[in-house]
Amino acid sequence: MGNDGSEDDAFGDGGDRVRNMADLARLTGVHVATVSRALADSPLVSKATRDKIKALAAEHGFRPNEMARRLRVKRSNMIGVVVPLGHEQRQHLSDPFFMTILGHLADGVTANGYDLMLSRVVPSGDDWLDDIVDSGMLDGVLVIGQSDQLAVIERTAARYRQMVVWGHHRAGQRHCAVGVDNYLGGRLAGERLIERGCRRIAFMGEIRTLELTERHAGVRDMCAERGVDAPLQLDTHLASDVMYEEIAAHWDAVGGQIDGIAAASDVIAMQAVRVLADRGVRVPDDIAIVGFDDLPLAEQMVPRLTTVRQDIARGARAMTDALLARIAGHDAPSVVMAPQLVVRASA
């Protein structure tokens, strides 16, 4: 109170004195619950009272604790986007595939009134996903890639429905997955190389994750059907700091034995083109290369990259739609998109 007993002197010019809703309630002469409702635009409080409380809050620079409010209503308006890297601990979020899908997911999440919390996880145990979904900070979770964590994802999906995963769908799995038919995509890549006249094909990529294993299987089966030797599988990490050296070592070891490369990703295909250019090998005259993804960079490089397209923008929309449905309590099944061969200059 001021010297004259007025309430204004207690708060008047000292806007920093309004530290919480209780202070604002004393200033306005109403209950704390009324202040809370007014700041939340509740129709339970008259418009005149809401306007008065908001005006005083603005005058004193008071902003309510949004996180506390969200905890009270048991909603965070926050979606977690998680990138598990159990199979490839050195891979970075700056990878062009991650950047592409993250951009589309961020657009979809924020357009629906949610904030986004991004986590890059290198699993050190089997409880990493439990820690995320049980944190109380998220209304739902989007997982980019199954990595080598399929068992962990399946176990969590059995009890937590507000989760959607970018990856491969197998019959009978619990978790909702959105992705391309990777096996068919591998067949398309193998078929293109064989039609180009390739008879000694290499598959560049690891086969430790479900997506890449299916891509390799598709190339392998297409070769078998066309009477071509099984593809030579060359482990190639997705980590950018070792990819060039690995591809160079592969070429130096077996380059004379292959005339076509089915790359597990566009990034691997792009690095292969670079390695071959540094060695004076012409693409596609000396060797044909097919990528997988159809990232924006695929049509900007030289030679432009022939690749298997998975519609990342459509997939991101499907992930967001499925997660919102699950948050609302509805069912949302997996989505399997058809791959498309995009023929350009490299094969």
Quick recap of the structure?
It is built from 13 helices and twelve strands. With 347 residues, it is of the alpha/beta class. It has three domains: 57 residues, 434 Repressor (Amino-terminal Domain) (Orthogonal Bundle), CATH 1.10.260.40; 128 residues, 3-Layer(aba) Sandwich (Rossmann fold); 128 residues, 3-Layer(aba) Sandwich (Rossmann fold), CATH 3.40.50.2300.
Describe the 3D structure:
GO terms for molecular function: DNA-binding transcription factor activity; transcription cis-regulatory region binding. Residues 19-73 form the HTH lacI-type domain. InterPro entries: HTH_LacI, LacI/GalR-like_sensor, Lambda_DNA-bd_dom_sf, Peripla_BP_I. The protein has helices at 8-11, 21-28, 32-39, 47-59, 66-72, 96-111, 128-133, 150-157, 182-195, 210-225, 240-254, 266-278, 312-327, and strands at residues 78-84, 115-121, 140-144, 163-166, 176-180, 201-204, 232-234, 260-263, 288-293, 306-309, 335-337, 340-342. It contains 13 helices and twelve strands. Helices cover 41% and strands 16% of the residues. The chain folds into three domains: 8-64, lambda repressor-like DNA-binding domains (434 Repressor (Amino-terminal Domain)); 78-179 and 312-337, Response regulator (Rossmann fold, 3-Layer(aba) Sandwich); 182-309, Response regulator (Rossmann fold). With 347 residues, it is of the alpha/beta class. The strands form two sheets. A six-stranded parallel beta sheet has the order 2-1-3-4-5-11. Strands 7-6-8-9-10-12 form a six-stranded mixed beta sheet, sandwiched between helices. Mean pLDDT is 90; it is low at 1-16.
